[in-house]
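Hi, here's the filled form for the chain we discussed.

Project: internal
Contact: R.S.
Residues: 270
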Amino acid sequence: MRNTACSQSVNAYFHCGTSIPKWLIYPTAMKLLLVFDFDHTIVDENSDTWVVKCAPASKLPDGIKHSYKKGYWTEYMGRVFRYLGDSGVKEEDMKRTMTTIPFTAGMKDLLDFIGKHKDIFDCIIISDSNAIFIDWILKASNVSQLFDEVFTNPASFDGGGYLTVQNCHIHDCAKCPINLCKRKILEEFVENGLTPRGEYSHIIYIGDGGNDLCPVMHLKKNDIVMPRHGYMLENMISQLSHNLVPVEASVINWSSGTEILDYLELLIKG
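And the returned structure, exactly as it came back:
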């Protein structure tokens, strides 16, 4: 059976004598879709909180810090950006800070591998960060060309030099924050995107957070979800399994980009 009470780690396949299930290994005639979260997945921090390093004394006033309401992160970040602008923080200051954010261990090796096999992989990002931050970070590391699409909250600098951010889209999903339903983004992409859904051998979803659960619950039996070990998505999937509501996709945990690379390499060699 593909759905088990607990997820397996990538290393388990390589170091514990566990054979790879044949259904996980496919010829590469069909493409694979890689779907990445951004914060705590591609980069090893939260980009929205990393920008606070630009603030005076690298912290926010309590009035702003405690103003977040669940489901309204974009509005909260609007207040953060207004405070940074009022404090004299300029676009170049933000960019200098954001491009120092660390990538997750092994992630650059993984992205390099994907770049060498773009004939096999379509690759997208779905993130609750914002377009400015992601663009800066990816371009600074010369990896932006690897991604076919980036879906996130639109952002721009206004005439006064203030960074502004808007909701990604409108949706009616009661399980997701008001600004972004990753399931809706993913479904629309596979319906209207680069490659018809039926021509993907797998969708492989790589993430860490609670807002990744909604799209993961709509993956199919040939798909793979790769939650980051020790993070919320892994815990939520595990709890669903304990409650006898497992996800339909196979679950393989990861701790570094290198483990994901090893797994993808195995798939395409199949």
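Let me know if anything looks off before we file it.
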